[in-house]
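Changelog excerpt

This revision adds worked examples to the README so contributors can see how folded entries look when concatenated. The first example is reproduced verbatim below.
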Amino acid sequence: MALTITDHHITSDQIDDRAELRPTVTGDGSAAWGVHGPFTGPRASGRLFDRNAAITLMTLAETIARPPAADDRIWLHIAAWCQELRIAPITPEHLGL
């Protein structure tokens, strides 16, 4: 798994999702990033994120693209990432595990 992060794009070598810098700012004045793709779309539709949150969301998307075992400790991180991003929790059950 590897994310490529530039000043204007965040892409993955594992999934088709991508983040792009938008010509606007977030509520705190940070640059705004839109994130879209098969794994992030349902969770990020219409939302803008700061750069750090866009990286977190892309990391989350890469992680769930190849679902870990239901008892893997990574699920603790997945729960924390969802909470940090203020998106609905993702559980093994959501992914059919």
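The second example, added in the same revision:
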Amino acid sequence: MGYFNDYPLAQDLAQDVFARVWQYLPSFKGESSVGSWIFRIATNICLRQGERQRRISQSEVPPPPTCRLKQRMTAQCMCRPCIRPYPGFQRRTA
């Protein structure tokens, strides 16, 4: 749940991690600890999911409204998903 605030998605990603670990366990070389190897797999899966979600959300951007107030509100709404992953102090500066 650290990367996404969606419990069912987090469960699906955890299942993907376990499947990937099982799939690649024979190729584990032992150059690092098993825990750090699994953590890296989990991190990569979560990062790829985030990239997929950003690509999908960017393709669903609505056409710009004609009213200036609506334009400003739409711009704020479009920016929120982009800056949501950053810590609070970085979000405030954006």
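Reviewer comment on example two: The chain has a mean pLDDT of 76. The two ends are 24 Å apart (CA to CA).
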